């Protein structure tokens, strides 16, 4: 039972009956899967990984520079985060298709939570330190969840809530880009649609810069068109993948030639050259920012994890390999811990880059290593060239990237399948767009939890009837042919009976009996003498559940109705015995099947009649 | 579906098709049940209520004075809380047996949380104001839970956790009484057993007062003996009920005669005469204490509610009448709101006094009105007489009262039935005794929640086999006769498939398939060609669940195994259709019963073989 609950995947199965040295190698391989798949690695695989790595590198460089702005950090920190974390992941992770690095939603969330605490412009040094602190604890959180086998906790964010949250975040991110896209100087710090639109409106007469808009708009059209081509024909997947880099090169060249920056076109200005400096001493391990860092780290770590695991699972099921969620979390966590010490902020799996990685034919995590090398060369050699890159182009790249996060089809499907899920989806969406990222997240989590609570506290109880000329008893609402047995009410409880639902189950059964009795009375039919509970779906019962049964038994006795139990499972039966409930109701009223019970009860009814 | 979830009791059923005036009367009766049962009230019933009322009054007066000390309030506030709230409850409540007033555990909890914020001696006025504020918001919380039909939330405290919490609270309360019982002057403010024992030990040489111990011990023996008599013979239930009052009268008289207070025997000294003054203006509606008051109010309100509802349900099931939990919560809530405005602190149903009330033959809530009148007379006339009552006697009364909360039998039963429940029980117990009341409560709530989460995320999956010579398929672990069908793995999922468990279900099924394949390979048996999921216990599915099924289908296809669905319910079937999952798997692989599915799959296996 314990094993089934916490170790359903039996993680130590391979270690059984092995020699010491073999166990050491297995242990090493389980921490560093690269030692496992690395032995079968060959040139053919490397060819795929190399091409995929180059493709995602060309996509990630402009994205990284843009995303670091969402996190209110200087552009180089985005590139740093695409250098170290992918390397660590390549050694420890088990997904073959995920592309690691900074992502839009986590950057926005982190930036938005951090700037509530420290002003990123006035106090840039402390802001950066808090960002590393949050990254460190995000990593610790992720690794701890995996290590303690609590990975299932991230399943508590429902798919519907994630769809809404992602869509809302995408719109929020796109709106934020209006600042760079329109060249507005005084822009609101709030991320809700009302504040942003107000900023845009106020600045309409003097704040907009037409040169900026021209550059941004023309390249946005180019980027969206390249996306369209990639979507139309899968063979051209590389077109949208390299379009951003082309845009950056072209626009930078254009600005350099025309010196448009003197006309008010804002440019990146400066990216620090060189690879990641150490940031071990910058993490707050004491003081008032420690608690804040932990809080922000936990939230952003969990969201990053949710995204990475979802991506990992999607591609694992497409290529049909197993992904161990808990082990994956440890890998992602350690990657961020190391990242936080090497000037990176929270990195995770990127939806868009992983898809490109997959389509470009990646074979293993080596594509991440290739990407990492390209980023390294970029940092060492060509960062100065980004000086004249206009901010508008980064805005266009981000807009065209996040549009893919708005999944209208999924939302429509949710509407069709489950209205309650749709409420969760829209709640998260509206929360993000009209209030803040944190509020949307809170709404998403709350609605997800409410659904779980309702599921637990309100199990289904159905009335069974006999399918004529058989000994089969089925739900009368589902099988119109099923007929109720006269004088007997057969109720099936479709859940374990625990403290969380025992009172509901008891009251629901009594209410069903009362409804039935009213109906029978109205039709002058014989009254109910036996209430039969079909227990086969009741997988377990606890003390509260047994109390509820006892109370039910007593209430029924007072009404002259006999409680009968059919088909209790072995676990439930043991507990009914241990609690002496079987003595109370007497073994004569516990049966193996509903048919047995009905057969025994029917003659007794005749006697009384 | 919505109705089934939120209105399973169909609260408006009586209002259907009624005239306006009738609806008004019904509405009035549903808010004030006294107008309903009051019409059948007669002298015989009053006789029962009168005797019961006098009995519980004699029990409550000494208890109230003692309990107010637990809440760090002057003695009259305990009496006030036995005057107004029972009156309000008598008009609005629907339990016939509950006795309303201050109770030990809530007094301790309130006192312990309040003194963390304000010192009750140095700043008595603000402390009292915060107590009323907390009471006000306790009432608001209770009424809101009832009004919003969220009453089921209190079911989240499991029975086991409550048993442990109550036992721990009883021991903590008893230990606190050592101060009065031993006449110690410098006593710790902490409630954990280590601090208390340290206080007792430090004061052993100069702090103990032998006269106090003599009075306390002799009356404690008397009280426990009277309890023993009442337990031996139910006819003498009144002996333990009036023993406390007799003890108070005798000991007060004794101290007055001997002037033992001059020998260091601590006495009550002063109880304010007169009935409840208004405290409307004392409640903090603004300022820093508002938030604290709300927090303490919510916690103590929920605990008070849990106790009252548990009592109400117990006696309702003993006398077989229905108790509407949500309506009851509104009544208890409004009672505390009014109480907070009339100098009362949180009142609720008392276990010990309700039992006495029941045994003394109460018929309706009129016994509470009788009790209330006796308390009124006490406050108006005889409070000055309590001046010489020794504190030791109050300590003895409280000790003998709370001993009944330690339910060793229940704990043993929990151990026998469910080991996990026992952990919850002991966790709460140890938390209260060794740390603090709040810590015990936190442990109780956390463990209860953990159990729910595990229940939701880890549904059972079982392998089914055919019972020879029938078309019945049962769990092979439960029915050793059931034999697996060659080439087919039949798995039953015993829960709705939601986002919270969809990944687990998918991975568990795949794992079961892999285990099975390994076993078959080892025995040179034909491989699995069909994986059949028996869906009858799957009451519902959401988008995440359908995604998991799709992923499962794809993984199985890659392994050359066909997914087959048997007996999906109508709700599930609709959703499988809406999501086009039925197109993916094809309708040919969805069957009404497992037997149908096996019959169709068997020939196909022969073809291939």
From TrEMBL, chains A, B:
Query: Looking at the UniProt record for this protein, which Gene Ontology cellular component terms does it annotate, in alphabetical order?
Result: membrane
Q: Which InterPro entries match?
A: S04_transporter_CS (IPR018045), SLC26A/SulP_dom (IPR011547), SLC26A/SulP_fam (IPR001902), STAS_dom (IPR002645), STAS_dom_sf (IPR036513)
Can you say where in the cell this protein is located? Membrane
Q: Where is the signal peptide?
A: none
Protein name, please?
Answer: STAS domain-containing protein
The membrane topology term of the UniProt record is: Multi-pass membrane protein
* Species this chain originates from: Protea cynaroides
Q: Which UniProt keywords apply?
A: Membrane, Transmembrane, Transmembrane helix, Transport
User: Which GO molecular function annotations are given, in alphabetical order?
Assistant: secondary active sulfate transmembrane transporter activity
Q: Per its UniProt record, what SUPFAM superfamilies does this chain match?
A: SpoIIaa-like (SSF52091)
Residue intervals passing through the bilayer: 87-110, 130-150, 156-175, 210-229, 236-257, 289-310, 330-352, 358-379, 391-415, 427-450
Using the record's annotation, list all stretches that form the STAS domain.
478-601
Which NCBIfam families is this protein grouped with? sulP (TIGR00815)
């Amino acid at each position: 039972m314990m094993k089934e609950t916490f170790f359903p995947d039996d993680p130590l199965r391979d270690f059984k009956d092995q020699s010491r040295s073999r166990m050491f190698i297995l242990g090493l391989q389980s921490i560093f899967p690269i030692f496992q798949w690395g032995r079968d690695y060959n040139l053919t695989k490397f060819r795929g990984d190399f091409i995929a790595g180059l493709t995602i590198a060309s996509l990630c460089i402009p994205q990284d520079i843009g995303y670091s702005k969402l996190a209110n950090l200087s552009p180089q920190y985005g590139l740093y985060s695409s250098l170290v974390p992918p390397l660590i992941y390549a050694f420890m992770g088990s997904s073959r298709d995920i592309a690691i690095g900074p992502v839009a939603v986590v950057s926005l969330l982190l930036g938005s939570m951090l700037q509530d605490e420290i002003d990123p412009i006035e106090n840039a040094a402390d802001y950066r330190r808090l960002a590393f602190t949050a990254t460190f604890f995000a990593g610790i959180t992720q690794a701890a969840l995996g290590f303690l086998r609590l990975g299932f906790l991230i399943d508590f964010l429902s798919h519907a809530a994630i769809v809404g949250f992602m869509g809302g975040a995408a719109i929020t991110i796109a709106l934020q880009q209006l600042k760079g896209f329109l060249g507005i100087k005084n822009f609101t710090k709030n991320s809700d649609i009302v504040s942003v639109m107000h900023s845009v409106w106020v600045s309409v007469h003097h704040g907009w810069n037409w040169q900026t808009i021209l550059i941004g708009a023309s390249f946005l059209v180019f980027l969206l068109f390249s996306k369209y081509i990639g979507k139309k024909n899968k063979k051209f997947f590389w077109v949208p993948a390299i379009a951003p880099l082309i845009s950056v090169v072209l626009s930078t060249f254009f600005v350099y030639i025309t010196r448009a920056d003197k006309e008010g076109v804002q440019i990146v200005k400066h990216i620090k050259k060189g690879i990641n400096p150490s940031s071990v001493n910058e993490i707050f391990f004491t003081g008032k920012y420690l608690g804040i860092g932990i809080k922000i780290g936990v939230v952003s770590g969990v969201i990053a994890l949710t995204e990475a695991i979802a991506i990992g699972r999607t591609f694992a099921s497409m290529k049909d390999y197993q992904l161990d969620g808990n082990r994956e979390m440890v890998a992602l966590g350690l990657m961020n811990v190391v990242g936080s010490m090497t000037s990176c902020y929270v990195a995770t799996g990127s939806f868009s880059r992983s898809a490109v990685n997959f389509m470009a034919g990646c074979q293993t995590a080596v594509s991440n290593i290739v990407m990492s090398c390209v980023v390294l060369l970029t940092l060492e050699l060509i960062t100065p060239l980004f000086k004249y890159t206009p901010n508008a182009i980064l805005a266009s790249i981000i807009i065209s990237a996040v549009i893919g996060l708005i999944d209208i089809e999924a939302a429509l499907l949710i509407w069709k399948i489950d209205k309650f899920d749709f409420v969760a989806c829209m709640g998260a969406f509206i929360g993000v767009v009209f209030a803040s990222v944190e509020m949307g997240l809170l709404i998403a989590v709350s609605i997800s939890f409410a659904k779980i609570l309702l599921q637990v506290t309100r199990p289904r109880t159905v009335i069974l009837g006999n399918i004529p000329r058989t000994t089969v008893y089925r739900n009368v609402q589902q099988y119109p042919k099923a007929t109720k047995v006269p004088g007997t009410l057969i109720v099936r409880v479709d859940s374990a009976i625990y403290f969380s639902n025992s009172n509901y189950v008891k009251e629901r059964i009594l209410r069903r009996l009362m409804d039935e009795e009213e109906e029978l009375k109205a039709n002058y039919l014989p009254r109910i003498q036996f209430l039969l509970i079909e227990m086969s779906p009741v997988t377990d019962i606890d003390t509260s559940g047994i109390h509820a049964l006892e109370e039910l038994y007593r209430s029924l006795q007072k009404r002259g109705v006999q409680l009968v139990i059919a088909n209790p499972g072995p676990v439930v039966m043991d507990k009914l015995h241990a609690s002496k409930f079987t003595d109370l109701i007497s073994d004569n009223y516990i049966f193996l099947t509903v048919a047995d019970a009905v057969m025994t009860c029917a003659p007794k009814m005749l006697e009384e009649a």
